[in-house]
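Handout, page 2. Input:
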Amino acid sequence: MDSRLFSLLNRLSSLRESKKLFPESLVRKIPISNRTYYTSRSGKISLYYKISPLGNPNTSVVPELDNWVLNGNKVRVAELQRIIHDLRKRKRFTQALEVSEWMNKKGICAFSSAEHAVQLDLIGRVHGFLSAEIYFNNLQNHDQTDKTYGALLNCYVRQRQTDKSLSHLQKMKEMGFASSPLTYNDMMCLYTNVGQYEKVPDVLAEMKQNNIYPDNFSYRICINSYGAVSDIQGVEKVLKEMERQPHISMDWNTYAVAANFYIKAGLSDKAIEALKKSEERLDKRDGLGYNHLISLYASMGNKAEVLRLWGLEKSACKKHINRDYITMLESLVKLGELEEAEKVIKEWESSSNCYDFRVPNIVIIGYSEKGLFEKAQTMIEELMEKGKLTTPNSWGTVAAGYMDKGEMEKAVECMKAAISLHMNNKGWKPNGRVIGGILTWLGEKGCREEVEAFVESLRAVIPMNRQMYHTLIMANIRAGQEVDELLARMKADKIDEDAETKKILLGTRKNKN
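Output:
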């Protein structure tokens, strides 16, 4: 066994026994950060500062809100609204709903239809459309406005409730509330989500008939509906119509959507033209936009443009978050440019970004896909030596690669490492094919002590099964040991002897004779 891997496995084993496999700071799941930051200009600790770090969606923010008031701090409506907005943006909907409900319950302000609409939307996201319906039906008549009606429609659309959406839309039309692009955009999203793409252009046409000007999103959904059914002429027809509209300011996203469909259709020249138009309209500090264009160029196999845009992004955006590095590394791995990916990993390591295993894991997967399993293993080991979090999946991937190459000793050691990390990844299950191959090899080649240790550790991840018993039986037979106790345990686990079991035992008797 590789001495470095041996020492790492020993360390993992001892740490696992003490139930302190990794520091809590490394074990917790760290979400990809956002470019929006709120700080107090006066240097005082703000309520947002208290709530923002509570990233675990299962952590209630109500105690922090209550303590804020108990400590004599003022509660500002604008700050609470900003907190709700930011939590929604970060998809922390349960916490956003808690803030909204707390705000309403404490009477911080009289809820207008706008606040009710926000709370209704959050209820729909957290508890489903039925709970949203109850909230809506309990509103006073003066609060059942276009905003709250629209929020309930959005709940129906999000959960793909076609009949309820159509019925609710009809009520909105009767009350004069279907007068904005948002309502029709919701319906186009619904038809997109349920795969009825042919109905999307009809909704756009109805908008125009009702003298409601489609916005950028309206046209983009329609372009997407044509692209989804590979109707490139439809894509171009809507794009040209959009370009002619005096009230529309063409945006980078729309051209990027069109470029994606051109790429899928194999129309490289048109794709590049659309990508150039997209870049021209890109806010030079928009990291998300750069990432999107980088991914599209990578899908075309255009390394030069990927590197050029990455250079522009690095010079234009002051901060590069983990999402930026993930996009770039995924693009380079897709292009097969692992040496360039190694350079980007070094840039990431020297940044002040929080550690996120998803970043180096892209390169680990890239090595594995190219058959460079030694490099993948070395990278994982170096991360562990630095005290960084790794996952069973990464070790399992390398183990599979070694097994496919016939290097079974290495496959076994990597799978041992994967199993050792199971405590922090309770939902992880090893690849059945790899485990099957390892057990077969151990049964034929492994020493009894090694086999027993491996099976014992594997039991913590998956229940005992017939193949695990067969491996133990074969190893014990080769070591000259009796297997009656193993057969009894097998029977106690309600695993019957099959033809393969009898074959193994018959082979033993023949050898003895």
